[in-house]
User: Fold Zinc finger protein 474 from Echinops telfairi.
Amino acid sequence: MALSSTTSSSKPAMIRRPPTIVCYICGREYGTKSISIHEPQCLKKWHNENNLLPKELRRPEPKKPEVRTITGKGFYDLDALNEAAWTSAQSQLVPCGICGRTFLPDRLIVHQRSCKPKAAK
Assistant:
């Protein structure tokens, strides 16, 4: 059984993903239209969760990074914007005092219940 080719070129068609923007609070990707809906809700959730933490684990409110890199066509450099947002989201992580791994503060509490110092060999 021979396969017939309907396209004249042998290159597979490139599937372009729609552009996404990284949330500076949680680090997840959202569409360019959805991010303006997501960020206020994410910040509200962040405040609710932060207020439930013990005082020593509470963090200051994350600030939206300002990226002023504009391409020649007048658009924002999406890669620079996403890199700054990702860095901001990662700065919210807190290191474990025992093993040094980083966690969101509410997850750190759960982790520390089972984290044990490494035994010397």
Summary: Strands lie at 20-22, 29-31, 94-95, 102-103.
